[in-house]
Amino acid sequence: MRLLAGSPEKIDVEQLIADGTQGDYIYMYPPRQAYREMPEASLTEHLRTSFAETADEPLNLYVHFPFCRQICGFCNLYSVPASQQEPFADYVDLLIREVDQWVEWIAGRRVDTLYLGGGTPSLLPVAELDRCIEHIERTLGVCRDKVPEVAIEVAPDTVDRTKLKDLHRVGINRVNLGLQTTSDDGLHRIGRRHGFALAKERIEDALSTGFSNVCVDLIYGLADQSVDQWRGIVEDVLRFGAPTVCAYPLTLRPNTGFARRGMEVPGASQYERYEVARDLLTARGYVQETHVRYVIAGRGGYQQKRNHWAGQDILGIGAGARGYLRHCDYRNGYSIRRRRDALDAYRTRILAGRRPYVQGIPLSADERMRRYVILGLLDLDLAGFTTTFGADATVVFADQIAELRRLGMIDVRGATARLTRDGRKYRDLLVQLFFSQQVWDRVTEFDYLE
Ligand code: SF4
């Protein structure tokens, strides 16, 4: 990720705004670039401590399926291009073995969300996805019908109406469709093999299948897109009336196809695109849930992310999955240069009965406080901070909050500190003020050639 200055104290928000600088979308803290290789025994000890402390709290499960039809030019998620004969059943066997490893720590805990992400989990046959969920139910004592959000990420060209119905039948209630753009040229330039006509049909199929929540993801700033073209894309998507729409800024990450081709993100106009999305969506009745997500009240949302941003744990399962727990974040391997090697390494560890995690970062009380503020900053629960940490966030982070107030970016009232309309727009710049020096240094030193 791109840091905004030499250290958190040197960030000049006013100058960055004047320059039209866009911050990377920060959806987790610490970011993964702060993870380091850690001995299995040490990570295991941190995890054991975490689970002991949160045994009475709800848990969220994330299962990673690292397979895609193609690798999109902007994407740095961990995934491998799937072959025609990809042995998906073997991968589900590995997931099942991994679930068995976690049982001793989490059996019986209430599960509030189950998210099948990737990659492209919808590439797998529904029977394989069902087998995975069924094993989770049986071993952890979870009943999918009682989990409020059971979600899957879907690429439009991996499903048809029948497959969507099958996904619904096996208990999936939220579908996340990665559309990104409604322009055929734009789809082609990010590497998709389908056009908008097919995606449109699939979104309409999903909306009429009975899922309680359908989310359509868009990215702005792709492929020389003008602000007017972006307006047209948002208008196209508004016609669907999907309960949730996400609009993410394009971020150029090292090692992605776009970065290798020397593509540039169109600077200041990204904020114009943000405003276009915000204004069009809110004018049509969507509520802005975060700086990237818009929901129809009572129908839309993204509960797993909301739960984590409110302080709950996420247990990540699968090759490349990340877990976010009270005392430690971890990752089950990662590489976008040697994708197959990372999958093979995961397989080898699981088959040898070893734990899948290889990287992570222990979280001190200081880092946990920073995480609470960074993830909660849109609508910061100050009373919750005091209850959780026995400290006053406006004292611990007095300098940062004073700066945000001076800039008119935050409104502190009673037990809440809420980003203003401008604060939301610049949220990805503002949160970097709250990074620790330790995380800053780790991100700075990160080797992007992994
Ligand atoms: S954007 Fe989605 S479909 Fe494209 S490579 Fe990334 S995970 Fe795969």
Draw up the topology in text.
Layout: H1 13-19, E1 36-37, H2 40-53, E2 59-65, E3 67-68, E4 80-81, H3 88-106, E5 111-118, H4 126-140, E6 149-154, H5 161-169, E7 174-180, H6 184-190, H7 196-207, E8 213-220, H8 227-238, E9 244-249, H9 257-260, H10 269-283, E10 287-288, E11 293-295, H11 303-309, E12 313-317, E13 322-324, E14 328-331, H12 339-351, E15 359-362, H13 365-376, E16 379-381, H14 382-389, H15 393-396, H16 398-406, E17 410-413, E18 416-419, H17 421-425, H18 427-430, H19 437-445
Parallel strand pairs: 2-5, 2-12, 3-4, 5-6, 6-7, 7-8, 8-9
Antiparallel strand pairs: 1-15, 9-11, 10-11, 13-14, 14-15, 16-18, 17-18
The chain binds iron/sulfur cluster.
Iron/sulfur cluster binds at residues 68, 71-72, 75, 77, 79, 118-120, 155, 178.
Oligomer: single chain
* Unreliable stretches covering 5 or more consecutive residues: none
Q: Which structural class best describes the helix and strand composition?
A: alpha/beta
| Count of individual beta strands | 18
Small molecules (ligands, ions, cofactors) in the structure: iron/sulfur cluster
Mean of pLDDT: 95
Largest sheet: 9 strands, mixed
Cα radius of gyration in angstroms: 21 Å
